[in-house]
Amino acid sequence: MTQHIRVKDVMSRDLLQLQAALSVEEAVALLQEHQLPGSPVINERKELVGFVSEHDLLCQLLQASYYSSTQRSLLDVMRTEVLSVGPEDSLVDLAQQMARIDQPKVFPVVAQQKVVGLITRSHVLGALLANRQQPSPM
């Protein structure tokens, strides 16, 4: 039964997408407001161009305060090599990928180069737990 769950069944469609031109400070405020550890970064065509995490922003703010540097945009700090998943991908396959230590906590869900959702470890854990608690068909 778990094998049939797809990313689209669990992902959040109400997601934060940050514009690449936003300042680091604006991005921090938005991540805190939405209580997210990271967010996809999109261009003016709403295509995925990067990802920025709290860690990325923390490092930038520390560096800026140490060197008294000026404001920077997300273009300067985002990662452009982004791990993403598709809406039709298997939730179990994603869970196995997320179980590795060096994997992100948040994955953008991308279809036709556009971000259509976001899936977190919390979403995956909740879906796996709910699936375990369902009675097995006889």
UniProtKB/TrEMBL annotation:
Q: Write one Pfam family the protein is assigned to.
A: CBS
Protein name per UniProt: CBS domain-containing protein
- The question of whether Lipoprotein is a record keyword is answered with no
Give the source species: Marinospirillum alkalitolerans
Annotated CBS domain residues: 11-68, 78-136
Kindly list the residue ranges recorded as spanning the membrane. Answer: none
Query: Which terms are listed as keywords in the entry?
Result: CBS domain
